[in-house]
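User: Okay, second chain of the day. Same drill as before: sequence in, structure tokens out.
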Amino acid sequence: MKSVSNSELYDILGVSASASRQDIKKAYRVNALKHHPDKNGHSEESKLKFQQICKAYEILKDERKREMYDRFGTADESQWHTESTSYQEQSGMSAGDLFAQFFGGGSTTGSFFNDDMSFFGKRQGAHTAPSRRELPRGPDIKHYLKCTLEEVYHGKRAKLALKRTRLCKKCKGEGGLKASQCYTCGGRGIRTETKRHGPMVQTWSSTCSDCAGRGSFMKQKDICRDCNGQGCIRERRIFDIEVHKGMENGQEVVLPGEADEVVGSELGSEHVIPGDVIIILEQLPHKAFWRHRDASLVLDHCKVDLKTSLCGGPVWVDSHPSGKLLKIDVLPGEILKPGAIKCVEGMGMPKSGGRFGNLYIRFDVAFPESLKPETVEALRAALGQEPGANSGAGEPAVAVEGREVEEHVLSNFAPDLELSRDSYRKRQARGQSASSKRRKYADDDSNDSDVADEQNGGCTVH
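Assistant: Same drill. Structure tokens below.
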């Protein structure tokens, strides 16, 4: 806990001495609204409290003054009392002016909360700050776009519709097309009244109640019809999203500055620098394949019969995301042991520069559960023949006519797929968990259909 010699100013704002600058700013906002004279019938107690709040914030928002106050209990040990009593004269800013500067409006020592006007000086309009650099940055809008492995392999374009709040283009966020000068205060926003009590003259100023201190007002006929005086509109924007070939699960497509331009806050509508629309790719699980190190594919549990594992022959892969039918030749004499992992180069996922990763296949050898005596003798006789003597081997068990067929041979290079698969499944689980908890900003209006059922997955042999 931060130690200070005097915590009075912190106590006024209701924050600890270790509060951040943002916490102090937030506390001032809440307390200034709560104790503003307009909301408390202009009682003397509320006026005094409001002055104390503004004084505390004026000191604590300044790093140098705050440091001196924390060390000595005063911003200037020799001049503190003089500065505090002549604060308005030296700075040219009253407590009401400080309040108005903080919230972006005019002087606020009078009727600030006019029911017919918005908090930010417009008829229910959005607050517009004088400079874009002074505006806070608004939140990003995140959306998860679901894609199949086939869509990621080939790339796709999707239409995505999102709703967002933007400034009205017609009135530029002003809520109206023309502001008229207030006749009561002459455009100053402040009314000055003088009363004479014998030889004494009393003069005081208050915020003009007719214009809420802005010096201008919006006539009914000048209110913007597009936004009904709100200064902002809720619009539906359709974005054209391109999913590039080979994109990874969780990879982001960022549309800068396309998020909300006006956001809701505890004080109403607030004009902000638009955040980004972030599209996060969510790759759906595939029936047969999973990705290894982003660019390679793994086909687990590709079943082959005992004859093919011993004598060689073709293995047909019918569910590759490219849509092609793959013919994998197991060469005669190349024994496929149970659990053997083989590599097909260049048949993985697309990479940059037109390259492709590899396809890794893990083979499962299907053994018969039992053999009849005559089958055993026939098998012994068959295994005694030369490899490839059976002329019937090699015919595909899937339809080939009219399809593009790519023929490949196997290599012995293979990585440690067990570790990679465990890592992949953990990433998938984390992604699905985050997907179930995430906030839905908008519906995915993609014109692409849902994931089609995978047909004839895996591989077959004859």
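The longest helix spans residues 417-437.

User: Thanks, on to the next one.
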